[in-house]
């Protein structure tokens, strides 16, 4: 048993007697959370950071960057070219030059709070601005402009409450100008930039996936800048502009004495500065970044944590990717925006396949039908669908049909005053969201809403409402899962516990349908078009009808994976006397592990729902049936716990 | 950088790359600028690096009067807020704790944490103020000592989650489950019975219904511990009811509790029904 780590925060709790000391004990966020007694919904948690204070800037959440910084290192030393948001220049710069400051000493005047453990005099946590404002330009330039051997790799540095992440990139030296011996003119010294680093400052406790996403963006921008530098020395030109403005401002402040931020002046003159500012702003708001470096190269990026938010939580990107790899042809794609809106957002040079897909997409069509209607390969459909899902433009659902059973999502916001309720009332006048949601408190199938006495328009509206609720992740769909569990034998209690369940034994019979491997370059796989899912088991070989010896042997082989006791029990069931039923049971045996739902079995085996339900009923003494959501697509309705 | 990653480099001495506290000793005594003591910096750094990577802790005397103590702390996620209708339950065996290591409040409430008493009840019975109990339990939650479940009533409705299948796949969860839910003094329950019981939980079925339907399976199973285990491991989840006042006329006040933000449990707790 590991030692229980009693931190100093903990010790503070023991020694306090009054409430007052308790409340200002720890700067740790969770103690601060105790203030809000009605923080039922996770959305309230965001507001806890923004306590009433005089500062203009609110603290953002953990997925937003605090600042974006561009530094370079070259023949003129390490320079901070640009940073955003601007540092508020509080102190008079003349006082700065008066002190003899070593560049390595931390600027402690910027820190409002001392250490995390001490009793803070200030009760509010540091705003984002203060966190990075404590670092002066010179310090940032020194620590962020690395040496050349750190280039081309992820750069991450944590100082107190700030984490810097970037991707330092080496610039190739421009070709050396050959000076001929006859040329008497002296060689002009061109100030060269050796490397640069686009750095994002985050809160130190940001999630590792957020950090790696930011690093990804830094790397993308760096690649674009490196390319433009090689092509037309774009970066050097911009850097010269930035430094020129900085020098200008410093000389101006020395003469005038009025402090100004040089970066504010840089913005209108420098396209790169504006791009970086735009990247920062987009990251803090929508999470979608689209830059045009030098009006030529496009850098696009999305932060899944901002896009895929449900309640107060976000879906971790790894979970998203895992889900996307597991989608099947019987799933459907549900667009989260209207077709027109989505098409208008696409760039001019987007692939026509995507346009075709968006136009033919529908909530009732599964991906295979979509492939046929849009005349695209299934693998392509998978890739485009995964791409749309990643960018938060669509989600994966099971196609809408009468037999679907829906229930309220555990994370649905059912508050009377939520913005969703308002939107719903606007979209569907005369109906209110809470009443509609109440109908889905217990699982209900769409067929139950059907009322032949009502006008058909009512039913169409109901479908629209269901689609609306699915888009806003208010509903989850329940599926039936079956597991084979044979009653234990009474006369051999010792063996009972050692029998591993069927799930462990019947392994490896994967259904080889193509899946969206990685949303990126298309692979040149040959099995692009599918008319029916290929399966590497023998079910297709079973001949229909007749009690031929071939069929009997097949059944026996299939049942061979069971233990003797299990086989006996199954054969003793009255329904097993019917060879058809037994054959069907044996054929479907490998689905009874609890991982394949009814609709999947229907799709793969081309069977009707009634057939399957009857079979389950006949063999109910050895099967355990349960209903829950599909774990593959439930990620889109509720984030991982 | 988590506990598993090796420390790649130590930058400056003020900026500590790991999760430990900032070293301020050097600043105060002018360690770095002093030429002689600067020579000691390299062996100090290398010792730090080796020891922290090896054991996760390091005690190092720098000079005659100063010693550094460093320890790598595991960063955990912020714990959720603990409400008065939540029920804490120990995830590990209670006897493994050395009570004296905990603060006074926690020591006082520890005997009342049994997985069935909710926070409000613990506060009343242990005679500790409600907010103190909440903070203490939140602290225990942070360290993974307890986890939160909901109040148990026979009228509760639960339903299965996809994770219930892990009971079939994962042998360790099976073992843990069967030993946890078996009634005291009885032969071990069978996996089939327990799995059937969990799958019998569905929206619309109360625990009382389950007991009457599956009485044969419940002969060797304690249904309260069954539910408790299911909630702890997220094999099942509780369906909460939220009353919402929809019909509104001008005369009536806007609803305070019936807004859809407060569950039945919460309302009952707040209005003193529990």
Description of the structure:
With 641 residues, chain A is an alpha+beta fold. Chain A is built from 27 helices and 17 strands. In chain A, 32% of the residues are buried. Chain B is built from 12 helices and 6 strands. In chain B, the strands form 3 sheets. Chain B has a two-stranded antiparallel sheet. In chain B, strands 3-4 form a two-stranded antiparallel ribbon. In chain B, strand 1 (57-61) and strand 2 form a beta hairpin. Mean pLDDT of chain B is 80; it is low at 1-32. At the A-B interface, helix 1, helix 3, strand 3, helix 19 and strand 16 of A face helix 6 and helix 9 of B.
Please sum up the structure shown.
The complex is a heterodimer of chains A (641) and B (274). With 641 residues, chain A is an alpha+beta fold.
The helix/strand order of chain B is: HHHEEEHHHEEHHHHHEH
The biggest sheet of chain B, with number of strands, parallel, antiparallel or mixed sense and barrel status, is: 2 strands, antiparallel
**Distance between termini of chain B?**
45 Å
Biggest sheet features of chain A: 6 strands, antiparallel
Q: Structural class of the helix and strand makeup of chain B?
A: alpha+beta
- Helix proportion of residues of chain A, in percent? 25-40%
- The spatial strand order of the largest sheet of chain B comes to 1-2
Q: What is the overall pLDDT average of chain B?
A: 80
Shape summary of chain B: extended
Q: Quick one: which chains have the greatest interface?
A: A-B, 73 and 72 residues
List unreliable stretches of 5+ residues of chain B: 1-32
* Percent of sequence in beta strands of chain A: 5-15%
- Helix segment tally of chain A: 27
Supply Rg of chain B: 26 Å
The overall strand count of chain A is 17
According to DSSP, the number of beta strands of chain B is 6
What is the subunit arrangement here?
heterodimer
Q: Fraction of residues of chain B in helices?
A: 25-40%
Proportion of residues in extended strands of chain B: 5-15%
The dominant shape of chain A is elongated
Protein name (chain B): GATOR complex protein NPRL2
Organism (chain B): Nibea albiflora
Protein name (chain A): GATOR complex protein NPRL3
